[in-house]
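BUG: 3D viewer hangs when loading the predicted structure for this chain

Environment: internal workstation, default settings.
Expected: structure renders.
Actual: progress bar stalls at 90%.

Input used:
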Amino acid sequence: MDNTIKTYHYTIQSMKGVRIGQVVLTSTGMFSAVSEYGNFACSFPAFLDGKSKEDIRYYLTYIDTYALSNTIGEGMGYLINQVTNPKEINVFGRRVYQTCQAFAEEILPRLQDMLRRELKEENPELYQWI
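Structure tokens produced before the viewer hung:
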């Protein structure tokens, strides 16, 4: 059995060709991004053991921005818990959610286009419909 962890790197560009982010994915479910909209990292538990038969790249082609923003937002929950003033918790939590949503809306569609092209090139028959 091959225990090699595969790593994938993508440079995300705006419509004008300006780099707006970099995304790193691993076959064990790690998603990491450095972008103009914030820096985020999270993991998708289905891939953690490295034995999932599904490719994380394929998985990311069909999730929506809401799912991604919630996943990365959950990882930032510890920041919200550090706020001691109850009045500030809702304001800070809303800002975190808005930041995660803006990131997902700008980065995910561009990443999905790149992933679809890459998967089709690797295996045209299997991924002909994505």
